[in-house]
């Protein structure tokens, strides 16, 4: 760690991992509810568990992005953070608001929560992933603005590198597009149209900028490859991401009441969306092969390579599988979508956050890398989680193909619930893969407590 | 990545490409908005439908069901439930939840009034009449 204010990243990373654990617990609950329908009913109905599962994911990734930014920007800008105190204050506000929101979901009926939190003044709740009460949404905006102010001021007083500029553009985009979550017209088609301006323009737009910038930073550090080379790659990757991803939004505009031309635009541009992810994979392997130093943190290198591969598979390949309009006509809103969602979020965003945590955490704890045994434990965590996520995805894909066949392609289509019974074997297998994932997560957590010799601090 | 392709060129292509395609998205969105009156069934967007949408949202229906294919995949698609089941079945179904059948997926009871039930049905009817390019492929959703 080169600047003492980088240490504000530590609580952000710890909170991220803690909420990740919560996310997985609720994932297991839902996995069981898929096959034992009345499990935990009426205490935790499926919709509540799902809201907690997806909202925790979003919040912990945001904690991860913010932690990554607080770690990375002072080092890139070669100056202390503008205000470490503001960063810590925002940490506590975000954590308390996040926890209160999750408790609200779990303890109060959703319609009561809506009434208590001003949803009748401005109705924004009850839309997928944007279920947060109005007060929480406003809180997110305040925290984001304070965070962006802090980071922008830090950059203005220091060195402006491509990595930090790209990261900052991604973060500003994240905050700006979130504002569409406050727009909820009564016209369902418009509602859905602009809902995607948050959801799609986040995960297939500005988040890719954040992801590519974090990956580029870690690759510079662990490979020692010339910054000029890495920054050129970074520009190429994010160009491909936005050129394909912006009009690629159209793959969500096939069947929601929007004009037919989106079927062409959405199909063509989103068919190209795997390219930036493929470029990221090539980039990561290329840089590691051309490395000029053997960084003692081998686990961080593994996470970085894993990010490239799994993002390409989950977002790229599994996205492409069902993105062409004639295919999507049958697969839209099926378990195929769920399969893609799981591997894409894991491969792209979970792994990139765990990459920066793997790289930064030892430094924040005063060493270049963890002891060999701790790293081996961490890498076991990587492989268990990654392989089980591959199986979760494969089982959901199998369930999805069968579901689409029985319910939509067949000449004698079966009702939804009858089909669910037919595919329950795959839901059971998905649940067991989820249990292995949880074991991988526990292994990963354990790696933080493995004691041993630490590598001396080197200055990159 | 040869020497002739410089970082400055990569940067310029990025900014040019990002701005161009974002403006294209904005232009297409304007065009979509102007074409929507033909497809979005706004003529039937009554007060009852709007109240129904509010009930749909504040009971977090999307947490289990899909609506026009978007949402959770735990329970049936409801974009076409109106033509599939009809108003009376939908109301009776909502009122009779949860079924309590052991091991089966359960839907909570939301204690909706007769008026609220009519509103949610109005919302689902309006939704089913949106021009969705013939999606879903059949009545089972």
UniProtKB/TrEMBL annotation, chain A:
Could you tell me where this protein is found in the cell?
Membrane
Principal subcellular localization: membrane
InterPro entries with a match to the protein in the record: Cyt_c_oxase-like_su1_dom, Cyt_c_oxase-like_su1_sf, Cyt_C_Oxase_1, Cyt_c_Oxase_su1_BS
Q: Which UniProt keywords apply?
A: Electron transport, Heme, Iron, Membrane, Metal-binding, Respiratory chain, Transmembrane, Transmembrane helix, Transport
Q: Name one Pfam family in it.
A: COX1
What does the record say about its membrane topology? Multi-pass membrane protein
Q: Is Transmembrane helix tagged as a keyword?
A: yes
Stretches that traverse the bilayer: 12-36, 56-74, 86-108, 134-151, 163-183, 195-220, 232-255, 261-288, 300-321, 341-361, 382-406, 426-450
Q: Which residues form the Cytochrome oxidase subunit I profile domain?
A: 1-460
State the family named in the UniProt similarity comment for this chain.
Belongs to the heme-copper respiratory oxidase family.
Protein name according to UniProt: Cbb3-type cytochrome c oxidase subunit I
């Amino acid at each position: 760690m080169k600047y003492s204010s980088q240490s504000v990243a530590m609580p952000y990373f710890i909170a991220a991992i803690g909420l990740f654990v919560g996310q997985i617990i609720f994932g297991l609950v839902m996995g069981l509810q898929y096959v034992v329908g009345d499990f935990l009913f009426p205490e935790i109905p499926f919709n509540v568990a799902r809201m907690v599962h997806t909202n925790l994911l979003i919040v912990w990734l945001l904690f991860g992005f913010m932690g990554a930014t607080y770690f990375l920007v002072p080092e890139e800008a070669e100056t202390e953070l503008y205000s470490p105190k503001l960063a810590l204050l925002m940490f506590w506000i975000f954590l308390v608001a996040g926890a209160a929101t999750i408790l609200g979901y779990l303890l109060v009926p959703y319609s009561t929560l809506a009434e208590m939190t001003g949803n009748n003044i401005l109705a924004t709740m009850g839309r997928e992933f944007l279920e947060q009460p109005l007060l929480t949404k406003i809180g997110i905006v305040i925290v984001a603005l304070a965070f962006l102010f802090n980071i922008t001021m830090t950059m203005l007083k220091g060195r402006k590198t491509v990595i930090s500029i790209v990261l900052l553009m991604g973060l500003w985009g994240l905050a700006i597009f979130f504002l569409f979550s406050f727009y909820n017209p009564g016209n369902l088609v418009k509602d859905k149209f602009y809902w995607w301006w948050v959801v799609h323009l986040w995960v297939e737009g500005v988040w890719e900028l954040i992801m590519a910038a974090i990956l580029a930073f870690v690759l510079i550090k662990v490979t020692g490859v010339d910054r000029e080379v890495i920054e050129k790659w970074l520009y190429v990757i994010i160009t491909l991401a936005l050129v394909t991803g912006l009009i690629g939004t159209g793959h969500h505009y096939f069947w929601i009441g929007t004009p037919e031309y989106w079927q062409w635009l959405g199909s063509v541009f989103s068919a190209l969306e795997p390219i930036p992810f493929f470029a990221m994979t090539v980039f990561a392997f290329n840089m590691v092969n051309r490395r000029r130093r053997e960084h003692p943190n081998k686990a961080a290198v593994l996470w970085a390579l894993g990010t490239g591969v799994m993002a390409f598979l989950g977002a790229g390949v599994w996205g492409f599988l069902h993105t062409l309009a004639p295919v999507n006509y049958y697969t839209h809103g099926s378990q195929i979508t769920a399969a893609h969602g799981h591997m894409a979020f894991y491969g792209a965003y979970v792994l990139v956050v765990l990459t920066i945590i793997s790289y930064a955490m030892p430094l924040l704890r005063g060493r270049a890398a963890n002891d060999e045994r701790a790293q081996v434990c961490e890498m076991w965590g990587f492989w268990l989680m990654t392989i089980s996520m591959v199986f979760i995805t494969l089982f959901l894909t199998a369930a999805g193909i069968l579901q689409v066949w029985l319910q939509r392609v067949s000449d004698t289509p079966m009702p939804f619930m009858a089909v669910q019974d037919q595919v329950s074997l795959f839901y059971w297998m998905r649940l067991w893969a989820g249990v292995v994932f949880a074991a991988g997560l526990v292994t990963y957590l354990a790696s933080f407590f493995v004691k041993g010799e630490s590598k001396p601090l080197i200055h990159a | 990545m040869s020497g002739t392709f410089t970082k400055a060129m990569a940067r310029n292509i990025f900014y040019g490409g990002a701005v161009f395609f974002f403006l294209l998205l904005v232009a297409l969105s304007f065009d979509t908005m102007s074409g929507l009156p033909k497809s979005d069934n706004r003529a039937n967007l009554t007060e009852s439908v709007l109240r129904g949408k509010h009930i749909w949202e504040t009971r977090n229906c999307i947490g289990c069901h899909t609506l026009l294919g978007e949402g959770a995949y735990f329970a049936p698609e409801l974009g076409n439930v109106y033509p599939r089941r009809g108003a009376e079945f939908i109301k009776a179904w909502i009122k009779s939840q949860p079924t309590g059948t052991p091991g089966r997926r359960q839907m909570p009871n939301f204690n909706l009034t007769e008026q609220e039930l009519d509103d949610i049905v109005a919302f689902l009817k309006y939704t089913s009449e949106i021009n969705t390019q013939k999606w879903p492929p059949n009545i089972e959703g």
